[in-house]
Amino acid sequence: MTPPRSVLIVGASAAGLSTAEALRRQGHQGRLTLLDAEPHLPYDRPPLSKQVLAGDWEPGRAQLRSQAQLDALDAEFVRGEAAVAFDAGAREVRTATGRVLRADAVVIATGLTPHRLPGQQGQAGMREPAGMQGPAGMREPAGMQGPAGMRGPGQQGLAGVHELRGLDDALTLRAHLTAARRLVVVGEGVLGGELAATARKLGLDVTLVGLGQAILADQLGGRVSGLLTRAHAERGVELRLGVAVEELTSAGGRVTGVRLATGEVLPADAVVVAIGSRPATGWLAGSGLSLGDGVECDARCRAAEGVYAVGDVASWQHEGLGRRLRLENRTNATEQAQVVAANILGADRPYTPIPYFWTDQYDIKIQAHGLPSATAEVSIVEGDPEQGRFAAVYREDGRVTGVLGWNMPKQARVLRQQHLATQPVATA
Amino acid sequence: MKITVDEDKCCGAGSCVLIAPEVFDQREDDGIVILLDAEPGAGQHAAVREAAAVCPGAAIEVSE
Ligand SMILES: Cc1cc2nc3c(=O)[nH]c(=O)nc-3n(C[C@H](O)[C@H](O)[C@H](O)COP(=O)(O)OP(=O)(O)OC[C@H]3O[C@@H](n4cnc5c(N)ncnc54)[C@H](O)[C@@H]3O)c2cc1C
Ligand code: SF4
Fold it and tell me: In this protein, which residues make up the domain named 4Fe-4S ferredoxin-type (chain B) (predicted)?
């Protein structure tokens, strides 16, 4: 196989940008183009629900790379322009402005689109009233401007209802939270937990609603999710768990509350919907690619000849686990990018990572390595939950499937090396 | 090669330690990165670049 002369990456965030950097580092000298629907310079998402929403960081601090580092990549960045169609056979992308981009290799890195509640959409084109936007300086972070005009879908819909995927979402939400009093968070996953924690820190009355019985129950199992749920309750979050949302209530185009299936109405002047996401593959309809839960790739992250997928959008065959996997976490974006870049340049490397994610809620820092599951048997091997620091090992059928640190990041990493070292980490 | 780390961005993943244990370590109490060697020898350069590339906090910066 001859290395491609040109590479086009669609989605220039954690996974896409990392792929570009890895391509250059691994010797790609040909053309490199990155296309992204957002106008901003590439930024990182984990800080959005934490430092940026809390106001601890200037938004510009979430930028992934400096302008000088981006320049050094010698790549062409096309920003504020969405891909709307793809022909996998011709490796041809059409954008919203009608432009056609073609390359020897195409990398799909478009991430996720948040799920919405019925009625969240409201009237298309509706905006937050001017008074809710906060100080002018909050709107456009210094150093992150791109061509104006493109607005995320989060800005449209019933006023006072938010989602959080992008920087604009975070800034709109932050501006609203500094003026709001009562927030309802819908969703008891990682994002819902972090949002509730940050909003409490900002002094809001917070109610968290979720279908599950505990915060992060599916990901961390009953014992640890029980501790996390208790931590939220102790810090003043009202919990409505194991209950469905019936509808959003509104008056005059603005949200007034959340009606639960139990009939209870939770009054709110702000609502954040964090009920999960789906892979952003809408633009790939009719492309010839196989789309299931994400872009379906082989063990080498290849979706078709010369077409690869990376990051949250990619579903691939994990040879170590012997099954298909799609991960929605930050480390996967960069680790998978190394392997995709190598394979584009002619390597034949399966991607077999040990999954890893972290979450910060209040003063609690959780690190999860491997695949801790709700069905695993959990044993505390270091520290003490009552002291607010511990490390746990998850076992299924006697085999260690995950390790977790609760305010014990280093110990969790050491446990990972002891128990999960059988699957090699992706290295270039 | 010169390495700098931004402790404020570090989320304590430990990916850097897994890849380049002679250059990076983590603090016992909060897992934040410790830079053991800010100007490592040539033998470490590939591993350090790899660590900087995968660091999920974008906390490691390498200049030549
Ligand atoms: C608020 C928040 C907090 C998080 N916190 C954590 C955490 O604590 N720990 C953790 O491990 N993970 C966390 N994550 C997850 C992590 O950020 C993601 O796994 C990571 O961003 C995935 O990178 P990606 O490049 O695959 O996708 P994304 O970062 O979503 O990037 C996709 C890019 O594609 C672009 N795009 C989409 N569609 C198109 C199109 N049609 N045309 C052109 N461009 C398009 C988008 O504009 C975007 O820039 C968090 C995510 C969010 C949203
Ligand atoms: S890999 Fe990055 S985030 Fe993780 S410990 Fe090292 S510096 Fe910190």
Answer: 1-29
Residues with Cβ within 6 A of ligand 1?
A 10-16, 35-38, 45-46, 48-49, 82-83, 109-112, 164-165, 191, 280, 283, 311-313, 328-331, 333, 357-359
The verdict on residue A424 lying in a domain is: no
What pLDDT score was predicted for residue A1? Answer: 67
Q: Give the residue among A19, A288, A42, B53 at the shortest CA–CA distance from A4.
A: A19
Q: Is residue A426 part of a domain?
A: no
Query: Is residue A61 included in any domain, yes or no?
Result: yes
Which numbered ligand comes closest to the C-alpha of A337? 1
Q: How far is it, in rounded angstroms, from Cα A371 to Cα A355?
A: 7
Task: Give the CATH number of domain B2-63.
Answer: 3.30.70.20
Domain count, chain A: 3
CATH code for the domain in which residue A98 is found: 3.50.50.60
Asked if the ipTM is above 0.85, the reply is yes
Q: Which atom of ligand 1 is nearest to the CA of A110?
A: 34
Give the torsion through C-alpha atoms of A13, A16, A19, A23, to 10 deg: -110
CB A260 within 8 A of CB A250: no
User: Which residue, A276, A298, A329, sits at the end of a domain?
Assistant: A276
For residue A129, the model assigns a pLDDT of 31
A42 pLDDT band (50/70/90 cuts)? very high
Task: Say whether both A120 and A251 belong to one domain.
Answer: yes
Which residues 19-58 on chain B approach chain A with CB closer than 8 angstroms?
19, 26-28, 30-32, 46, 49-50, 53-58
Q: Which pLDDT does position A109 carry in this prediction?
A: 98
φ, ψ of residue A222 in degrees (nearest 5): -60, -45
Give dist(CA A81, CA B35) in Å, integer: 40
| Residue range A138-195, pLDDT digits in tens | 333 333 333 333 333 333 579 999 999 999 999 999 999 999 999 999 999 999 999 9
Residues of chain B with pLDDT under 50: none
Which domain does A300 fall in, by range? Answer: 6-111+280-344
Ligand 2: residues whose CB is within 6 Å?
A: B 5, 10-16, 24, 26, 33, 55-57, 59-60
Is A320 exposed, middle or buried (CB count within 10 Å of its CB: 0-12, 13-18, 19+)? middle
Query: B31 CB contacts (<8 Å, ≥6 apart)?
Result: A365, A367, A405, A408, A409, A410, A412, A413, B12, B14
Give the whole-angstrom CA distance, residue B50 versus residue A337.
11
